[in-house]
Amino acid sequence: MNREIDTIRRDPRREWIARNRLHPEHLGVLAELGRQGASAATEWMGPNGVIRKNPHAPGFTGPNGLKRIDRSGVQQAAAAGRGAGHRMVAADERRRVTIEAPAFLVAVVPDMPGGRLSSHDRDLLGLARQLADADPARPCAVLAVAFGEHNREGGGELKEQAFAEAGVDRLLTIEGDGHTGFVPEAWLAGLVAVERELAPRHWLLPDSALGGADLGRRLAARLGERPATGVWQVDADATAPSGWRCTARGAVDRLDIQRPLPRVVLALAECAEPVSETRHAAEAMTLSQSPPEALSRIEDLGQVAVDPAGVALAEAEFILSAGNGVKDWEGFHHAARMLGATEGASRVAVDDGFMPRDRQVGATGTWVTARVYVAVGISGAIQHLQGIQGCDKVVAINRDSGCDMIKRADLAVIGDSSSILAALVDVLERDPALTRKGEKQDAA
Amino acid sequence: MQPESRGLEVAVLVSVGRHPVTGRARRADQDARGLELALSLAAFRPDSRVRLLHAGQRDDDNETALRGYLGMARGVGTGLERLTLLEQPEGADVVPALAERLAATPPQLVVTGARAEQGEGSGLLPYVLAERLGWPLVNGLVEVESIEDDRMTLLQALPRGQRRRIQVRLPAVVTVDGAAAPARQSAFGPARRGSIKVEAALAVPDEAFAGWTLSPARKRPRRLKIVKSASARDRFKAAAGKAQGGGGQLLTDVTPEQAAEAILRLLEEEGVMR
Ligand SMILES: Cc1cc2nc3c(=O)[nH]c(=O)nc-3n(C[C@H](O)[C@H](O)[C@H](O)COP(=O)(O)OP(=O)(O)OC[C@H]3O[C@@H](n4cnc5c(N)ncnc54)[C@H](O)[C@@H]3O)c2cc1C
After folding, report:
1. Among A82, B239, A63, which Cα is nearest to A71's?
2. pTM of the model
């Protein structure tokens, strides 16, 4: 059992070389020790069944010969090559769940704004799991129905993984040319085809302005089911026909309605905890026959260019924000117009009089929820970062690669703000496909 | 002007609202916006006529509230001098009555609010009506741009202040968004002068609703930020809330052009440039 301990042989000379970083063999010995260190047991079962730990095992010898323990795992990873393995373990911590023959299906139709599962979608999938996993003896599967283009990111693989981690067992993608834009009739035809073929026990949709609220009500009306809308809590209840009871908001959020859970459920955000401990199969499924061409009486003529300056900062989708690092204000305003972005500012830019007060982002300004936030010459003071907590993607343009905004950013470019903004405008002016939109904004 | 002999018939379904602070019965905000929108159609279709329809109980409170809609009349001949009340007993499902009525004398456009201010407030009524009548439905209407023959072009509200242009074939049901033009004031004179025509209608009790328990809305619990992590260091970092590094792409030593390309690529990917 504890043979490893018994056979430990110390080699004082090698230990000395390992401590002496000026020794010519220092690196070689370190590498050798590192290899050994990885294989040496740090935990084992003691003779009377108690787990024992070797307190000397963790850590590494620092550059000046002292033993160091770095709990962030960063340096250890570099020293002993443990990092890669470590991170893999972290990624695989989720229990894998595969459901072969589900007793029934719980269908979820996520909103997927921007082609990604929103947090509302994840909450809903968590609720679906709650319904599907209630009876461990009869496991049920969660089916996600997605329409058309939703794999903008990562070309497919990432998307599947996102679905798997959100708790989806089966993934049905209804594709076709007719499924882009606002085509409620085609979507509804797709869902009805799913209903006819798979007959899920429950249909869950987000009760959100992004589309779920509308589609869910259409579906319920078509199926002739009376849905529960604005559901924010679901509990088990043996007396209800479906075995569940829900609490829903009514009368413009003034009432709580307790009722048995119906087949079609439109739920609010935070209706359940999202899945965090398991990883599901997200196995792709197809319908045996494609949904029928729906008679289309509603035609989507495309989104209208609204004046971005008129959009309230708190609900703007795309913000170009200026800080103390903006020197060319004309260029900044021009770039915002060309990009069609709403303008924001840091407090310094506002205090210096370059931007109006109602454009200030941050703790004492507006808390923004943009999908894309471009910070131009903003250092990322904590008061400013608080205001952009709700943003999805942050782009930083800054001269200082060490500032806090760079740490927060999903894409950071180091350089002079004026010249980068000018280059952006240049590209937009050269590319007719992009400028078309810009010009429309200019004309408006 | 138009080839049709009959003018454009618009039915506005109105309900009794409830003031958010005082709780008094009033004209419902979204329905009033719907009526405002219907009245604005006269600007490009002078032959349009508005019909006001309400299904519900008949009592003093409701009548005062409903007269609020009649008070929006400006000039005569718009059809606003009368409101039809399909009388329903308490606890009735109003959809069958409305559907029957609309099917019997079909208008070309039905305008409703997104959801009622009382009762279940599920916002389902327009959908069920559209389904029964077999008409298309467009939600979140903010503005009608034009009506030509049987095609109506309109603007739909999207989240984040965005708008989408949609063309729909009439007859259709539309629901009005809170972003539509606010309703004009209700004037006392026309409200008094207008008449409420009470008609008997199909009464179907809403049995399901009667079986539910209603209570004043409870405050929803705030979700706690739970950090599931094995290492105490990660949990501390998450709790301390300082921006964490990592994950992001960092471009140093690039020309402004390359930087611009990279930024534009991300913007394109996110689909925010339109
Ligand atoms: C109580 C309180 C509340 C506050 N509330 C807010 C708030 O709500 N919102 C807010 O924003 N601030 C707030 N602040 C202020 C905040 O602490 C910071 O002072 C402020 O956010 C800094 O703004 P900045 O990043 O624009 O300026 P700086 O910190 O000066 O940063 C400028 C950045 O631009 C870069 N830069 C300089 N020149 C260029 C160039 N040519 N090209 C590219 N980059 C360049 C620099 O590297 C630097 O990173 C608050 C402060 C207090 C005390």
Report:
1. A82
2. 0.76
